[in-house]
Design goal:
Elements: H1 25-35, E1 39-46, E2 51-54, H2 62-81, E3 90-94, E4 97-104, E5 108-114, H3 120-129, H4 131-135, E6 140-143, E7 149-152
Antiparallel strand pairs: 1-2, 1-5, 3-4, 4-5, 6-7
Length: 153
Amino acid sequence: MSSNGSFAPPPPPGTHTTRPAPTTAREALDQLALEIPGARGALLASVDGFTIAHSSSMPDEPAHAAMMAAAGGLAHQLVEMGGGEQLRQLVVDHDNGLLLLWPIGRTRILALLTDSRVDQSRLRGFVRAHARLLAADSVRKIVTADGSKADEA
């Protein structure tokens, strides 16, 4: 209530939009790139170098997933060499921003391209909130034209 005893008017319609919760890894990665200032793109890859999902702002380059998997494998070896047991994050700080690599479970790695000043704690919070979806098995059964069942990634 204002000082003159009247209520403030409600906000205009459409000033706050609620996005539906993502149901696929790609939707989650797109949402991350859209909602977090400084996040430019994301790629989810298997540890054996195959793309699982990527944000629409990332090119679909098979070599990218292979490089991320190789970097993750090297980072795990460096952790062991340093006396550690668990890789938490690999950061590549370059002249155009950051490349952040995070393991997602034991079989996936998430790569994020960001500006240098991105809020990394907000990124981590988003990824933690969507970890189950990012770690979920993305293979589902489809029925082929002859009636048999096959896997679809």
